């Protein structure tokens, strides 16, 4: 009689997609309850606010109003100061002042602590206090593919300080790699064959991250290998918000009734509705409620609504989409210069869901390269990270393998 395999100890794997502008958490499903502030969604804003001073416990996520002063944003980028600053980032900078390494790391620790504490509360409520106390949690955290070892090590140090366990127990996975893993697991009609090469474009809120993979085998499990060094830059979806804010400021610069309250309300509608739905239709008019403002045909105000032509929205999108298209083309060129023909571009991340971005990429890349959105693109990274973590912890349950990674130089 063959000896029984030893049982795997009970533990709970928790994946964290720590993003520049939004973050997500998953264990066996994604968290979608982010507290009393109405924050129901699969991701929570990567924002902090110190109400009682910089060294007090901060407020985080949805508990901070969109128009509040004193918000700390984009602090994740301080972990990798070498990220390429595009013309977009120079023209439309974040309002958060630049910070030194210690300030950045303190914000990262505080944010990850708040995220971990909220997750603990959620798990206690869902599974009960006894299960939570008796079952250790092990964390997987995602990082951009372009990060070098120093930035990854700093992330692990911050995660350890945030209570996510000793750093040698915390796993790290590249964000596009996690998205690629999830895509191969979930997209039944992806139609990728052995030796096919594809590019993952993780289009997030602050940055895009590009990595090329070749399918080395599909049976018994998919095996993918990285082809060339990935690339990334500051040209994510939140630049649309900044450009739209600039558009409104210029439009209403000498119109007295337009104040900060109207500006903030209009930005919220753009971020939560118009930006997500825009697919390139310039014949459509988009409306924003502006109660109590008198009619003004020159400004497009009629019966309490601001009417914005689709062509103006397209102009808002154009600088961001143009930059992303340029970056995707460069990644494809680098891949194909090494003898690999790119068959598909898979879009992940929050802005990866946008139909206009996909249609522009299709037009620019031509019929020989398929452009698709990864299913559940907004949470594909955290879902893929969980699959990755499970495979590393319990190899017999692995449903994929990434067998090569291109070395990235570490500049000390």
Automatic annotation (TrEMBL):
Keywords: ATP-binding, Nucleotide-binding, Stress response
GO MF terms, alphabetically ordered: ATP binding; ATP-dependent protein folding chaperone
Coiled-coil region: none
Pfam families the record matches: HSP70
Transmembrane segments: none
UniProt key word Zinc-finger: no
Protein name as catalogued: Heat shock protein
Gene: HSPA12B_0
